[in-house]
Automatic annotation (TrEMBL):
Signal peptide boundaries: 1-23
Sequence ranges of Acidic residues compositional bias: 33-44
Taxonomic superkingdom: Bacteria
Bias (Basic and acidic residues) ranges: 90-111
Entry keywords, A to Z: Signal
This protein's name: YtxH domain-containing protein
Ranges where the record places region Disordered: 22-44, 90-125
Amino acid sequence: MKKITLMVAAMMTMGMLSLTSCSEKTKDSANETVEEAKEDMDDNVAEAKSDIKEAGDDFEAKVKEDKESLKADIDEAVAKLDKKIEDADAKMEKATDKEKAKWRDRKKELNEEKEDLQASWKDAQNETADKWDAFKAETKEKIAKAKADIRD
């Protein structure tokens, strides 16, 4: 963009110099050159705007696709946490008082992770595109932590 602006400025300067010291024919030629430079600049500006809009549209589509993928990952992790919570409930029914306390603590941890993931999804719906990558990385870490806890 700067090159185009510099090129146009140089062409205009050359045209002005030509106009002040040249014949009518040269002046007309210089005017044509200036007009052509203006038209080229307008075309380049329009093309740049189009490219920027297309890049923005592509980025928004990527963010939407990422959100859908993230939602699926969150749903999967929440479902697995629900299963582990059910398992903890079943184990508490058969456990001794000491073991019940252990399973209650474990169930509490699992519920907190589940709530954290669900809150992350609510946040994801409100995240703007410019903060998306950082948010996605943070949420992926939460999912990985939940999956690691599920394996325990």
